[in-house]
Amino acid sequence: MGMTSAQKRGFGATLWDWLTTVDHKKIGILYLAGGGFFFLLGGLEAVIIRIQLMSPENNFISAGLYNEMITMHGTTMIFLAAMPILLGLMNFIMPLQIGARDVAFPFLNSLGFWLFLFGGVLLNLSWFTGAPDAGWTNYAPLSIQSPGHGIDFYIMGLQLSGAGTLMGGINFIVTIVLMRAPGMTYMRMPLFTWTTFVASILILFAFPALTVGLFLMMFDRMFGSAFFDAALGGNAVIWQHLFWIFGHPEVYILILPVFGVFSEVFPTFAKKRLFGYTAMVFATFLIAFLGFMVWAHHMFTVGLGPVANSIFAVATMAIAVPTGIKIFNWLFTLWGGSIKINTAMLWSLAFIPSFTIGGMTGVMLASAVADYQYHDSYFVIGHFHYVIVGGTVFGILAGLHYWWPKMFGKYLHEGLGQISFWTFFVGFHLTFFIQHFLGLMGMPRRYWVFLENQGLDTGNLISSIGAFFMSFGVIVFLINIIYTTIKGKKAPRDAWGSGRTLEWTISSPPVHYNFKQLPLVRGLDPLWIEKTEGNEKMTPAEPVDEIHMPNGSILPLIMTIGFTIASYGFIYQTGNKYWLIAVYSGIAIALICMLTRSLKDDHGHHISKEELERVGD
Amino acid sequence: MSHDHSIDPKSMPKDPSKATTEGKHKFMGLWIFLGGETVLFACLFGTYLALRNSNAGGPTTQELYGLGLVFLMTVLLLTSSLTSVYAIYHMKNNDFKKMQLWMGITALLGIGFLACEIYEFAHYIHGYGFTFRSSAFGSSFYALVGFHGGHVAFGLSWIITLMVRNAKRGLDLYNAPKFNTFALYWHFIDVVWVFIFTVVYLMGMVS
């Protein structure tokens, strides 16, 4: 069942191919597309928020709609935009970097993607009947009291997409441990692979806490339990703990992979080996470890007491140490390098000061005493947008510009790239820098309006103007994608000429089995080693022989549709018990898919030696 | 790497569950998955510990729990873990019939455990009016113990499906990893029960 034939296929066949694909590269692209779509949606919500806050006592949207807008902006950006885009990059690039032909569980990979997508769509369908409105943190008892079905959509949507993410995490861990090419020892793995690995561990241990939190919330709202109901002895703070035991590692899930991206971009464009590779690896682990020890710093004002607050404050400040190690290692990588500036590099260079500002305000917030002043103010908004936009979004854009030629075989346009960079970069600082001061002057977060002549008018106006700059930058980036798709310059294997890692040894875009022969890895930065010894290519670690590949399957999609139907049923059965039919039939569909998967043997297929030799490299 | 693609080779290797790449992947994947499950149960334990005294005027843990039934349940489940070890021992020696036999006994013990648990829940609900909705204690109890019971039920349908599916064709390199991962999962369920027995029932009797 060879699929390599380059014949023109009809639209139906192409669609079917994408719906059933288990190829990690296609799933990666699907993640990027899905995450990109939600990024635009979340960005639109952000612009609406900024229009509402552009002038004092504005009436652009109602108070209720404003609450829905901030909730959906936060939830969408974290769960449906940033994380899926990162998962997309990991999916596409990581197996190439370790010299693997696929991931350990291709079927699960596909299921994870569909669960994310349908979870996101489900959550956003709430816009038609009333979106969730208790903030992205969804604190009880507010969320328990919230009327309508908005919160229910939040619960089921995140439960679905969270399950998908967990599957992705397990898959990546096993892939990295068991599927590295010959010679690719742990300490020869590229940093992006390392950070994918560590972020996957974080996903593994953090997401189940969210799963439990969402289940308890679901039971309380839909089945009358009393976890958060003080009248029956419940305790609303349990939600906060569960949410942040998940939520704090989550921000490291968002930032560690882009640390990996920068650690690839800097050496490539400075033509220097990454400074302090070993320290970088250990700093990654240290950040991940400490990331689990600090969740209560989101709860300093809850009243856990001075001892708990002090411990969590100190642990939080400690994270600045490994992060500082990383910042200095990047600077030293650049030091004395033969630096080439392009869009990918601009995003990376802009990241360093922007993120450092976010880190500095993070240490300020870590001081429990001072936090009583900052808590729930715009200072916090300024802080986390500096780390998430200045870190994660910059990193994603750096990674997209860096790997676009590998993923699609064409370079993004450099001029358009720089226009989008500069407008977005200026807009970003315009929007968020002033918010620190708005917060210190007393502006609380999540408020629908502010009064005039309290010193907040100009600051908010500046912030809103910045948001338009950022929107402009995003639009230019979209134009760039369209332009590149139509007329982009074709990229060779080693697209930047100074690639160091295995993904640059194979064609752009790669064939579906990635490596005709698995490469022999002789050290860190394997391609660079071969280049310094004058070799054109990697030394193969095996003769050309037939390759075993997994079969595509439509089951993950159908299974996900089953779960989505069941989720709808759960949401609406509170009002009308007939909706239980949807619950049962949805779960039945999912179970039948699982049963089919279990009963029907699937041995995959082989690409014959003859076919491989015909295709060439 | 072996180029013998047969899942049913002339002579089966010792421990057929880890003879293929897929088998190795599945084994490690399930271990990793259990890491996530540990956090899931840890969160439920934490919730239970925080709420177990919030009985809202209903029965307390001492009034509710009786160790007799729980002891029986513990014996059933722990024994089922042992019988699944026997099953895997025979699987590694490629003795399919004996593996099926011991897996069957494992499933029966699991069903016995589940029956006891359903009886226990019914007893609490009808005898004491202690339900999922009556207090925060009730919610957290049924959530924790119920999640475990749900895992047992899922495990039972898993192993029964496997046994029925493969009854006629015997053991090969494709299905051996499936039995192996089930056994690993089953041990985990057992370990969780040991914690439930201690934290919920024993600690509930003394405090």
Question: How would you explain this protein's 3D organization?
Answer:
The complex is a heterodimer of chains A (617) and B (207). Chain A has 617 residues and is mainly alpha-helical. Chain A has one domain (11-553, 602-615): Cytochrome C Oxidase, Chain A. In chain A, 66% of the residues lie in helices and 1% in strands. Chain A has helices at 11-20, 24-52, 63-97, 106-125, 142-145, 150-178, 191-223, 237-270, 277-291, 306-318, 320-334, 343-366, 368-374, 378-408, 414-440, 457-487, 526-532, 555-572, 580-599, 609-615; strands at 547-549, 605-607. In chain A, α3 crosses α8, α7 (191-223) packs parallel to α9 (277-291) and α8 (237-270) packs parallel to α11 (320-334). Chain A is globular and about 70 Å long. Chain A starts with 10 loop residues before the first helix and ends with a helix. The relative contact order of chain A is 0.11. Chain B has 207 residues and is an all-alpha fold. Chain B has a single domain (16-52, 60-206), classed as Four Helix Bundle (Hemerythrin (Met), subunit A) (Up-down Bundle). Chain B has six helices and no strands. In chain B, α1 packs antiparallel against α5, α3 packs antiparallel against α4 (96-128) and α4 packs antiparallel against α5. The interface between A and B is large, with 48 and 40 residues.
Topology:
The complex is a heterodimer of chains A (617) and B (207).
Chain A lengths: L10 H10 L3 H29 L10 H35 L8 H20 L16 H4 L4 H29 L12 H33 L13 H34 L6 H15 L14 H13 L1 H15 L8 H24 L1 H7 L3 H31 L5 H27 L16 H31 L38 H7 L14 E3 L5 H18 L7 H20 L5 E3 L1 H7 L2
Antiparallel strand pairs in A: 1-2
Helix pairs in contact in A: 2-3, 2-4, 2-16, 3-4, 3-6, 3-8, 3-14, 4-6, 4-18, 6-7, 6-18, 7-8, 7-9, 8-9, 8-11, 8-14, 9-11, 12-14, 12-15, 14-15, 15-16, 18-19
Chain B lengths: L20 H31 L9 H4 L2 H26 L3 H33 L7 H31 L9 H31 L1
Helix pairs in contact in B: 1-5, 1-6, 3-4, 3-6, 4-5, 5-6
